[in-house]
Write a structure and sequence with these properties.
InterPro entries: RNA_pol_III_Rpc5, RPC5_C
Strand order of the largest sheet: 2-8-5-4-3-9
Number of strands: 20
Structural class: alpha+beta
Protein name: RNA polymerase III subunit E
Number of helices: 25
Helix content: 40-55%
Organism: Equus caballus (Horse)
GO biological process, one term: DNA-templated transcription
Length: about 675
């Protein structure tokens, strides 16, 4: 009671809430202008507003007669903005900067706590504010001056070009087709600065009429600041209890809740997450993390969660890769979604991502170019796949993001075996879709690739050099052995093969020597061989049926392909008796070109099969160690080696291993 007596009530004032201008009343502030220098007496030339954005522009006149006004600067600015020619679109029609523009900006978006008050005759009338705007001078005329300057420079550079030259100028036009836009891409576009600016520019201006402070129309509008029904009929909102009145006068602040930033999509509240069912918790965690070891998943779910239930749930939303769990592709790319980069459907994206996951089950390294070549997807999509589960290493490729989890592999062999079976099915589908070469999965009991040993580039070079040295020594020994065999098989009694000289003089001397003294070449199948060669080969090899290069003979001579090939060989050697292997292959290719499509010989004839067929047809193979050889065919009656007769004899055809020289000669059979 003592406190109330010390602070007595001096006066009671009735408060009224006026609503006539509640949606139209704005408070204008001029932060760059002192409060003592108002714009009340300055002529307002025009005014316009965008109601949705609460954006206002005012044009006010400048006192050009004021001694502080620089006329030369005003004329220069008007000339820069409008140019020398003035028309209706000119900013300054008087060729002088005689006005300036003020643009508004919002100070706060929540004006529910602000009102304009008018005290009259012992009554306080409150009108809520619709907006609080700050107006500052606009310098858009400088942008117009810059645009005019660029236009003048472009005109000067173009020069006095003729109309015909302008018409002949052909410009290339690039046509682009828009991709299907996903929901996520659309949200990013809507929130972008460019989209907001475009949306703001689309709202039309509403032009207003400005009336001065002392104008009768302004006085009339100010009457709406008073509550029209002071009898209390229209002020039932204020007839409330003191607590309700204070609540209405000072509502709780909601600005903090509205301005609170939304959490990113990859940030989860663990408290909210644990209120969901276990299956949803696992799905949300895997969808956000993408790749996770099983131990980390158990630690996030809590200590009281059954690991068997987690294993059962994780297999529904993830696949096992190198002992770690990677979220399934259909979880990230639902059925009706598409790529934000290329617009390809979710089915194609899932297939491509499954291929990347499968490659990581084979190795810790994946090359992005290889994945793009096989899947035929864009580089951005492939990069998204790899960023989900790998990290890039310079000059190496993409490495799986987590180390190999051997502990989980050993602890849960049944789960690993089940995942191995799933990957086998996925591999079969990928091989069918992408036409992959048949590859076998690693034959491990766990079905997963083990930890890869990283080998540096220098180590690989050293290993390759050592292998090359070992192979070089082996090849040298094999070459020497073959040379000795060839030398032993070709140096026969009674047979002499002459080498052609490389120069023209040597060729002339060679011709004279051949004319004076020709050496006989024995073609008898048994007399000159001393039972060491059969059909031009060592006896051991001929008995075994192997060709000279170590390949086995054809498996069956009664097949249609073998019969056709045998007929071609016999017909060819009836026309030409001495042929090199390369010449015979050339004639065989010409023969193939003359055959109709679908012929049996198109099944594929190897060089080994062709050579074995020639030997089987009764031809002899002469292995010549020199580069150019001459031989011929002489006709006559066949005679056995035990019955020598005079005259020429018919010899078996020769297949010369080498290339024939420029000159041709003949052999004489004794």
């Amino acid at each position: 009671m003592a406190n109330e007596e010390d602070d007595p009530v001096v006066q009671e004032i009735d408060v009224y809430l006026a609503k006539s201008l509640a949606e139209k009343l704005y408070l204008f502030q001029y932060p760059v202008r002192p409060a003592s220098m108002t714009y009340d007496d300055i002529p307002h030339l025009s005014a316009k507003i965008k109601p949705k954005q609460q954006k206002v522009e005012l044009e006010m006149a400048i006192d050009t007669l004021n001694p502080n006004y620089c006329r030369s600067k005003g004329e220069q600015i008007a000339l820069n903005v409008d140019g020398a020619c003035a028309d209706e679109t000119s900013t300054y029609s008087s060729k002088l900067m005689d006005k300036q523009t003020f643009c508004s900006s919002q100070t706060t978006s929540n004006t529910s706590r602000y009102a304009a008050a008018l005290y009259r005759q012992g009554e306080l009338h409150l009108t809520p504010l619709h907006g609080i705007l700050q107006l500052r001078p606009s310098f858009s005329y400088l942008d117009k001056a810059d645009a005019k300057h660029r236009e003048r420079e472009a005109a000067n550079e173009a020069g006095d070009s003729s109309q015909d030259e302008a018409e002949e100028d052909v410009k290339q036009i690039t046509v682009r087709f828009s991709r299907p836009e996903s929901e996520q891409a659309r949200q990013r576009r809507v929130q972008s600065y460019e989209f907001l600016q475009k949306k703001h520019a689309e709202e039309p201006w509403v032009h207003l009429h400005y009336y001065g402070l002392r104008d009768s129309r302004s006085e009339h509008e100010r009457q709406y600041l008073l509550c029209q029904g002071s009898s209390g009929v229209e002020n039932t909102e204020l007839v409330k209890s003191p607590s309700e009145y204070l609540m209405m006068l000072m509502p709780p602040s909601q600005e903090q809740e509205k301005d609170k930033p939304v959490a990113p999509s990859n940030v989860l509240s663990m408290a909210q997450l644990r209120t969901l069912p276990l299956a949803d918790q696992i799905k949300i965690l895997m969808k956000n993390v993408k790749v996770m070891p099983f131990a980390n998943l158990m630690s996030l779910l809590g200590p009281f969660i059954d690991s068997v239930a987690v294993l059962r749930g994780i297999q529904k939303v993830a696949m096992l890769v190198q002992g770690n769990w990677v979220v399934k592709s259909d979880i990230l790319y639902p059925k009706d979604s598409s790529s934000p980069h290329s617009g390809v459907p979710a089915e194609v994206l899932c297939r491509g991502r499954d291929f990347v996951m499968w490659k990581f089950t084979q190795s810790r390294w994946v090359v992005r170019k290889e994945v793009a070549t096989v899947t035929k997807l864009s580089a951005e999509d492939v990069k998204d796949f790899l960023e989900h589960m790998a990290v890039v290493r310079i000059n190496k490729g993409w490495e799986f993001i987590l180390p190999y989890d051997g502990e989980f592999i050993k602890k849960h062999p049944d789960v690993v075996q089940r995942q191995h079976m799933l990957w086998t099915g996925i591999q079969a589908k990928l091989e069918k879709v992408y036409n992959l070469v048949k590859e076998t999965m690693p034959k491990k009991p766990d079905g997963q690739s083990g930890p890869a040993v990283l080998v540096s580039g220098d180590q690989r070079v050293q290993v390759a050099k050592s292998k090359a040295q070992q192979n070089h020594a082996l090849l040298e020994r094999e070459l020497q052995r073959r040379k000795e065999q060839i030398r032993a098989s070709t140096v026969l009694p009674g047979v002499r093969i002459k080498e052609e000289p490389m120069s023209e003089e040597g060729e002339e001397e060679e011709e004279r020597e051949v004319e004076e003294d020709e050496e006989p070449m024995d073609t008898s199948p048994s007399r000159g061989l001393h039972n060491r060669l059969a059909n031009g080969l060592p006896a051991g090899r001929a008995a075994g049926g192997d060709s000279f290069n170590g390949h086995p003979p054809p498996g069956c001579a009664s097949t249609p392909v073998a019969r056709e090939l045998r007929a071609f060989v016999e017909a060819t050697f009836q026309r030409q008796f001495v042929l090199t292997l390369s010449e015979l292959k050339r004639l065989f290719n010409l023969h193939l070109a003359s055959l109709p499509p679908g012929h049996t010989l198109f099944s594929g004839i190897s060089d080994r099969m062709l050579q074995d067929t020639v030997l089987a047809a009764g031809c002899k193979q002469i292995l010549v160690p020199v580069s150019r050889v001459c031989a011929c065919w002489t006709g006559g009656q066949t005679r056995p080696p035990s019955a020598p007769q005079e005259g020429s004899w018919q010899a078996a055809p020769f297949l010369v291993e080498g290339s024939c020289g420029k000159r041709s000669g003949h052999s004489r059979v004794a």
